[in-house]
Design a protein that fits this description.
The chain is an alpha+beta fold. It has three helices and two strands. It is 32% helix and 10% strand.
């Protein structure tokens, strides 16, 4: 992906963003949270990063990292991801397409980058 670039701080910035997302999961799922809700505003969200590599200015798929953290660190079985953005989160869709325990819902502008997210694109799991 020729649009996605890195600077000397990209890796540490990405680790920080993924850490924030995982910390939010930890805080919300802590026994003392008592039904606490959370919302992470992390840029970039990473929803274009596919398993094979970066795409659309996204290098780490922060959303997918947070979901897997909830599953693996906290035993959460079922997760729903609601992605509201003008662009379809093709990376999140690709990561979880075969996972029956993750529901991915995207609201996005039809035909916008990356050109995915058509009505006939449904999961396999």
């Amino acid at each position: 992906d020729t649009d996605t670039y890195a600077t000397k701080t990209t890796f540490s910035d990405l680790l920080r963003g993924a850490g924030v997302a995982c910390r939010l999961v930890d805080e919300v799922l802590a026994p003392a949270a008592g039904g606490l809700h959370g919302f992470a505003l992390v840029r970039p969200p990473g929803h274009h990063a596919v398993p094979a590599g970066p795409m659309g200015f996204c290098i780490f798929n922060t959303c997918s990292i947070a979901v897997r953290h909830a599953q693996q660190a906290h035993g959460v079985r079922k997760v729903a991801v609601f992605d509201f953005d003008v662009h379809h989160g093709n990376g999140v869709q690709d990561v979880f397409a075969a996972d029956p325990d993750v529901l991915y819902i995207s609201t996005h502008q039809e035909g916008a980058f990356p050109g995915t997210g058509r009505l006939d694109e449904v999961g396999e799991g």
